[in-house]
Each structure stands twice: as C-alpha cells, then as structure tokens.
Amino acid sequence: MFVILVYDIGEKRVAKVLKTCRKYLYWVQNSVFEGEISEANLTKLKIEVGRIIDYEQDSIIIYSFRTTKYSNVEIMGIKKGGEDNFL
Amino acid sequence: MFVILVYDIGEKRVAKVLKTCRKYLYWVQNSVFEGEISEANLTKLKIEVGRIIDYEQDSIIIYSFRTTKYSNVEIMGIKKGGEDNFL
Lengths: 87, 87
Known about the structure:
The structure is a homodimer. Chain A is α+β, with helices and mostly antiparallel strands. Helices cover 32% and strands 34% of the residues of chain A. A four-stranded antiparallel beta sheet of chain A has the order 2-3-1-4, covered by helices on one side. In chain A, helix 1 packs antiparallel against helix 2 (39-52). The A-B interface holds A 4, 6, 8, 28-32, 46, 49-50, 53-67, 69-80 and B 4, 6, 8, 28-32, 46, 49-50, 53-67, 69-80.
C-alpha cells in the first residue's frame, strides 16, 4: 500500500523517529515521509516508532491507501526531499 | 475530492499561507492540512498560495484523492489539529 506519514515530534526524539521512518519510507519534506510499504512492514514501523515517541507530546499521522489509482500529487516550490539532503 | 496539503514555508510567509489554507481546509498537525474540497476551490487555493510562497525556498505538496474509499488514517500520540489550537 501507499503511505503518507507526517510527524510532529519533540526535538529530543526526532532524530530517532527519522532514522526509523527512513528504513521503510522516503523522506519528501520536512516532517513528511511517503512510499510503498507492505502491511507487515507498516506494522513493524508503527511498533518501532511507538517505542520512541512520547504519546503525550508527539504526533504522527499515517494515511494509508490501498491504491494510488485515484490520487494525484502536486509540488509547489522546491522539492526538498531525497536522499541527498536527508537529515 | 479529499486533499492532504503539507507545507514547509519560510517564517516570514508562513502566517499568510496558514490563513489561506485555513479558508479551504482543516489544520490537522504542524504543517499539515486536510479536507474535502471542490476542484474549483483547490484551484483557487493553489493560486492564492502561489502568490505568497517563495518558489526558491518554500515547498508545498498537495496530495489529492478522488475517493477516500481505499484509504485509512491513523493517529499515534496526540491529536494536535483543530480550531482551538490553530496558530
């Protein structure tokens, strides 16, 4: 499935969350990852991230889509993501 | 259609972008808006935002979906969005 993951994480934990997300998804913008991922790997990602975040301060939203057939992506301005400028 | 809009905007312009996005969508997390929007209003939003952003520094990604039938949303941690704590 296709996943868009957006995060808002406290400074102390953000590097660890980024490292974990990066194992499964592509970084596309400050606080946004996306990518194709299996159900099994999405579960793994959620468990790993769940161990890092502070549930009373941090926030992660995961949008998942069984198909991208009905979707479209448009970028305005610069494309920030990619391996090169990844934190 | 359903839209997820993520932004990474320079400090000087961010308040104006937020104000514009808020006219059409709901704020759900730091740098994320979502909502149902007509094609006509999405075009308006893009034009209005396009007048504010610096195309060499800022970045906006707009994911649009003709249906949310094949999608799912999951929130981990706190729910930050909503009118109350909007900037």
